[in-house]
């Protein structure tokens, strides 16, 4: 995760418990990173100009953790740690893909930084409710497509 132009890049960082997070400060000034994890010790570090910091996260997190900067209040991002590689961030159009997902029944959880858990939505044209953003889906060999998942615009009102 880079601190670049007083922004965290990428805005959402995904990490497995077997990996180490590298935070790099690409700015010509000092920066900080505060990550409010629940299942791992939180951090609040200063990263010197052009410096870096490595941090391990041995425990999976239930939700994305907020990443913030105590020096630049507008600088924010999200960080998710999981034991497996089956997680994704949607692109600007809301599309995402999970590659090499084994066949079988899986429970997926959907979350958005403004809307929180995706609980009330339209899926395949029908109104549906998911408890805490969770839905069990059967993954079959080959291509699987969830179709459009539509949320009410007011979920994103500030």
Cα separation of the termini: 27 Å
| Helix run count | 0
Structural category: mainly beta
Amount of helix: under 10%
Rg calc:
17 Å
Shape: globular
Q: Helix-strand pattern, N to C?
A: EEEEEEEEEEEEEEEE
Report strand %.
Answer: 35-45%
**Could you report the average pLDDT, rounded to the nearest whole number?**
93
Strand order of the largest sheet: 3-9-8-5-6
Question: What does this 3D model show about the protein?
Answer:
With 158 residues, the protein is an all-beta fold. It has a five-stranded mixed β-sheet, with no helix packed on it. Strand 11 and strand 12 form a beta hairpin. The radius of gyration is 17 Å and the shape is globular.
Give descriptors for this structure.
mainly beta, 158 residues, globular, single chain, four-stranded mixed beta sheet
Q: Care to give the gist of this entry?
A:
This protein has 158 residues and is mainly β. It has strands spanning 2-3, 8-9, 12-16, 20-25, 31-35, 43-47, 52-56, 65-68, 76-82, 104-109, 111-112, 116-117, 120-123, 126-129, 134-139, 149-150.
Helix-strand blueprint:
Elements lengths: L1 E2 L4 E2 L2 E5 L3 E6 L5 E5 L7 E5 L4 E5 L8 E4 L7 E7 L21 E6 L1 E2 L3 E2 L2 E4 L2 E4 L4 E6 L9 E2 L8
Parallel strand pairs: 1-4, 3-9
Antiparallel strand pairs: 1-2, 4-7, 5-6, 5-8, 8-9, 10-15, 11-12, 13-14, 13-16
